[in-house]
Amino acid sequence: MQTSPHFTDATRAILVDWLIQVHDMMQFQAETLYLAVHLLNRCLRQMKVTTANLQLLGMVCLFLAAKKEECLLPEVSGLCYLMDHTYTKHQLLRMERKVLCGLKFDLSHCPPLHFLILFASIAHCSTKMVWMARYLLELSLMDGQCVAFLPVHLAGAALCLARQVLQEPPTPEGEAAWCLVSSLHIGSESVLLRIMSILASAAATAQTRDTCATYLKYSSADTMHVSRHPGLKNPSSLLGTHT
């Protein structure tokens, strides 16, 4: 991903990991997180932002996403508290105006999660497979390489990889539905394999990274412990390659 010169993908990953934690604590809708990261990516490409204001930018992107997706909004003072009062309310609102002007007030985005839910519904996927695919898809938010791919491609790759991880017994109805999904235009095989490789590698190292908010979120009983699945430990076997 091309960002401001003084920001690396590692810096971006730390910020996104923090946003995931704040999003989870706020109990926002999943769409809010995807929109927030999308806005952040656009800001990093189009605006000049100093390192000192990077956390503020991330919080503003989450705040704007919440305004678009949520029914109840947090107080601005509460957002400042979550940033340890490093920034004032005035600074946050001023950054909000800067972001809106920089993006020309265009906050539209169709998140990959919507495509994932559509594909999973058509393919009659099990609840566990949907959770696994959602976990893999959320890992894509952390990786700067995934910014270049279309949402529909990310969703298709996450679902394909989830299917390979779980290896659930096929049913005639499920196989017929999966063939229908596979016939949809979700990108060339090379694109899907590239994304699957990125996601498989991310899942294999998720537990040991400092940026592990997504791993922890999907290790709970509510998400069927999918991030702890033993099938995620060896990305080479998932993709049919050899190290």
UniProtKB/TrEMBL annotation:
GO terms for molecular function: cyclin-dependent protein serine/threonine kinase regulator activity. Essential for the control of the cell cycle at the G2/M (mitosis) transition. The gene is LOC101068442. Belongs to the cyclin family. GO terms for biological process: cell division; mitotic cell cycle phase transition. Residues 110-232 form the Cyclin C-terminal domain. Residues 17-101, 114-201 form the Cyclin-like domain. The lineage of its organism: Eukaryota, Metazoa, Chordata, Craniata, Vertebrata. This is Cyclin P. The keyword Cell cycle applies.
